[in-house]
Amino acid sequence: MSTSQILHLSDLHVSAQGNFDRSVVLDPLITRIKEDLTKGFKPEIVIMSGDVAFSGKTEEYALAKGFFDKLLTALKLSPQDLFIVPGNHDVDCSEYAQGESLNFSDMKAINDLLENKKHRDRCFVGMDNYFQFIETHYTHLASKQGRLIPFVSRRNTRCNKSIGIVGLNSAWMCRKSSEKEKKHIAIGEYQIKNAHAELMEPGGLDLAINVFHHPLDWLWNVDERACRTYFKTLKAPELLLLSGHLHEPNAGYSSDTQGGRFYQFQTGGVYTGSEAIESYQSRFQYITIDWDKKKIRLDFRRFAGWERIWCVDAENGEDGRIEYDMAGADNKAPKTLKTPEPFPEIPENYRTWLSEHCAYMDIDKLRGKSEVIQVKMPEIFVPLFADDPGKKAGSRRNMGEKCDQ
Ligand SMILES: [Fe+2]
Predict the structure, then answer these.
(1) More confident residue, 166 or 313
(2) Which pick of 24, 106, 150, 191 has the fewest CB atoms within 10 Å?
(3) Better pLDDT: 252 or 74
(4) pLDDT on residue 307
(5) How many angstroms separate the alpha carbon of residue 332 from the centre of ligand 1?
(6) Do the beta carbons of residue 143 and residue 149 sit within 8 Å?
(7) Nearest to 346 by CA among 373, 375, 384, 372
(8) What distance in angstroms lies between residue 92's CA and the mean position of ligand 1's atoms?
């Protein structure tokens, strides 16, 4: 049987405090990994898609190193089998003046900045601790272009397939609260073009893996479009994008729906706290590529709160497992997956009003097939969207708009 397997983790969020709580979650994770090995799982690489630290401090990375050592020992792998990219929490924001941010009006301005080493280095001051950690302990992850591109690597798998793994830095513009950065950050054409050129320089690959912290749709629209262009032209029959950041199990996978032939797999946060609420529970996944069957499989794992164990994550996939046709199989685009329909943006003033007056209501679950929400009186459910009897069936009115009926 010809398979390759990846252990995909993200969002470790190691802070200087909370050692005991982390041990409550992460010690059972090591136990789970060992148990999975006895059941036939055999990852040959580990990919950590960002947010190793909580605030980009040296002491946080020292603690993270201890976890990675335990993990690799359990997997019988070496440090050369671990691949890491930076996330927004790997930026030490105290290195920047309050309110300091990067704003661009066009891609050329980003490219000009990234091409200028002096200007680029100034932007990366807050990632110094991250790169020092990497350069000290994981020398195979040599950054390119002066710490702009986290790493470019090629290797042969156990079953002799050639895979290329490129780490991209989607965090270099991060300076403020995560939510405000959505659609305001960029990888930058200068970065992705150079990274792909280096990756493909020795020749074709069986599989190319692009790892970056933020999901593709978090990037500035212009940057997202540029990245898609470069992904599409990569000379590899199989292409995966691996990311993290959202900690959301329901966003565990998505196909490209805009003409590309790739899957984007987004994993949950490996440490979100022992008391994390349901949707934010700690999670990780195995990615298995079956070269003979031309299938890609995800196996989901979840930290089960008070049981203090990591279990099969039955909330994702079919009983914790989902399988896809390889995107490049027969040169067809990946079949459409069950991704939620895009939902209209909830007006900010309405969200604020709901949060203030309906404390028991989870407004993020106000969508079609979600579970029933219990609302305590005197709270009143106010539908966000309603059918207008005067319009054709299926049309919707946004309650944030003017309503004259
Ligand atoms: Fe993040």
Answers:
(1) 166
(2) 106
(3) 74
(4) 86
(5) 33
(6) yes
(7) 384
(8) 13
66: left (phi over 0), alpha (psi -120 to 50) or beta: alpha
pLDDT, average across residues 290-303: 92
Distance 175 CA to ligand 1 centre (A): 12
Q: What local confidence, expressed as pLDDT, does residue 172 receive?
A: 93
Task: Find where tokens 């490209």 sit.
Answer: 256
Residue 66, pLDDT > 50, answer: yes
Ligand 1 midpoint to CA 264 (Å): 16
Query: Residue 249 has what pLDDT?
Result: 58
Domains observed in the chain: 3-331 (3.60.21.10), 340-405 (no CATH)
Q: How many Å lie between the centroid of ligand 1 and the Cα of residue 13? A: 9
Strands 45-48 and 3-9: parallel
Distance (Å) from CA 89 to ligand 1 centroid: 6
CB 263 within 8 A of CB 325: no
The pLDDT > 70 percentage for the chain reads 77
Ligand 1 centroid from CA 301, angstroms: 20
Amino acid at 242: L
First to last CA, the chain: 65
Instruction: Tell me which amino acid residue 96 is.
Output: Y
Q: What is the pLDDT at residue 346?
A: 65
Whole-number Å distance, alpha carbon 247 to ligand 1 midpoint, is 8
- pTM above threshold 0.70: yes
Ligand 1 midpoint to CA 270 (Å): 12
Tell me how far apart the alpha carbons of residues 362 and 373 are, in angstroms, rounded to a whole number.
Answer: 8
Going from the Cα of 69 to the center of ligand 1, the distance in angstroms, rounded, reads 22
Q: Which pLDDT belongs to residue 259? A: 54
How many angstroms is it from 179 CA to the middle of ligand 1?
10
Q: Give residue 74 CA to ligand 1 midpoint distance, Å.
A: 26
Distance of CA 83 to the CA centre of its chain: 14
- Centroid of ligand 1 to alpha carbon of 23 (angstroms): 21
- The mean pLDDT of the chain is 83
